[in-house]
Known about the structure:
This protein is an alpha+beta fold and about 725 residues long. It is about 40% helix and about 25% strand.
Amino acid sequence: MAILSKIRDRSGFLIIVIGLAMFSFVVSPKNIIDFFSSKNVDTIGKVNDEDISYKEFATRVENFKAQNRNASAYGAMTVENMVWDQMVREKIYETKLAQAGVVIGEGEIWQAIISSNEVVNSPQFKDKDGNFNEDLLKAYVAGLEADTSEQGKQYLQGWLSYEKSIKQNLLTQAYNSLVNVGVGVTEVEAINDYVITNTSVSADYVYLPFSSIPNTEVKVSKEEVADYINDHSNLYQTEATRSLNLVKFAFTASQEDEEEIKHSLESLIADKEEYNKLSKSTELIKGFKNTENAKLFVEENASDLPLVDRFQFEDELPTVAKEEIKNASIGEVVGPYKFSQYYKISKLLDVQQIPDSVQASHILINFIGAQGAQPTVTRTLADAQKLADSLLTVVQKSSKKFGEIAQNYSSDPGSAVKEGSLGWFGYRAMVPEFRDYCFENKKGSIGIVKTAYGLHIIKIEDQKNFNKAYKLATIARQIQASEKTENKVFEQAETFANELRNGGDFEAIAKEKGYAVSPVNGLKALDVYVGSVGENRRIVKWAFDEETEINETKRFDLDEKGYAVVMLTNKQEKGLMSASNAFSQVEPILIKQKKAEMLEEKMDADSLEAIAKANNVKVENFSNVTLGAPTISGVGIEPGVVSAAAVSKKGALVNNIVGNKGVFAIVNKSVTVPEADASKVSVKTVNNIVKSSVSSQLYNGLKEEATIEDYRDTRY
């Protein structure tokens, strides 16, 4: 939590100074009112009685979304769960370290930052000699604080999040270090472990597998499951869960819909005559095949996929139309063809032999507003153009000067220290303008290209692996249901829901109509995904609503994807699992126990040979199996069986040993115990293994011990 220090100014206003990572700021009276308003003091959860405020949580969620371009692909609730888990982790470690009197200071955070590989190796923070310069980093941070643009604010939030992640790593390391001080093994313990692990056993055995008794011959009742759960109550505690049955009515394009989509694309290819109301005459409208501007045609006809404005190698062409495209003449239109949920028509614009890799150098000239330009840049675009033209003239006269000029003038420090060299890169590695120059011009070419990053003076050093490539203009139409089809799907879903409201049997009606019923079991209050429906918080909230009764049904709109008709089939409240909910977990355990009892009765004999004969099996053996790797050939991993053989009297029959795969009877033939040789043991290595194991499992232990209250289900 932030450290609050109260200071009164002459006006009597309470000013709150809040320490945040490396920075601090003064909050105005309005901020104070906002901060203490009822909305902001709401807590969304607690960890060991430490509040997690809704405001803090919501801010962290928004920051995560702003700084992760792919956040939308996760889904809203998934992002919220990730942020929640991170905040819980932070609170747990902060609490534990506070109890131990350990504080992570700003100096420690800064030292960790300037020691991190991503900062030290960033070209942005290196001087002209290629060495990390702390002052450049400080200037960068100061620039972020001074930049009040929206992009600047996003960059600052990104930096603050990076600081927070560094602090969290330090917290974790600090607590793990405290714990590891008391973790370790002595040389004697390490030697004993070596001896036990490498003790080997040889034995004869008879094995009666559980699979020899069909599951149909073993019955388990709900009462037996309930008794088992009560006897092992610590293993069967559960969160509140719900179980559902659902039928999904998806908007799926019909054959008629697909034919209509194909026809709409076909109508775009050829020229056609249309009556112009203004000129009161019939005009010839050029189609896709004869249009002079294919890119504009694609835009005007609203393709459902963006134009791929680059060359494509053969392996990138759509498989169903590849041969047609390869054999087409420039200007020819291929299609309609169906590919990846779309119907498409493609016009071949150009065919060239281009390299798949280029080696190039560049000199970047920044200007005000260019992406990545430092706040200190004052050069206008016009000034940048003059400088670039001047430098181009020099390097065109003497290309040998390119490296020296790059070192002195380029705004890209990463390549400047290498005389402008970018090394080898593939066709899709660079922004389009840069890519097109490098791949569509010849080796040795030098020219100027403008991109979002500034003006680039580019020199093509080398090219390799030339292959035929194709430039296409493609109009795509997504294959989706028509309004007529969607109306039909709605009628089906509503009719089904109506019959259920009138007392119909969910599964019987679904079976009669040929609908697939999807059960969803163990749904939790904060779950995001609901079986085949996918992400749908509305269904989850309905299932957990106190007023929703078992066997109640409801139809849900699936956000333009269709409908789902859902029935609540079971409720499990927080606490001990019910016998019905735990049945699928406990039944296999009880079946195994009952089979073990049945197989033990078949081992009532005085020798392995007699047991084998009575059960029509053979006496088998294993040799030199170690306790550290207790795998019996042909059976599997059986630590209990190998351990029993190791401690049994040589030559004595030991039967009714219940293993992982069945019941065993064994006779120990020999046990080989290695010498307690200290030279074969590395105490340091064993200690590292133990400490690594403790560190990896520590957080889960701390989390189980912590008191965590999660109120998010009331908001999301």
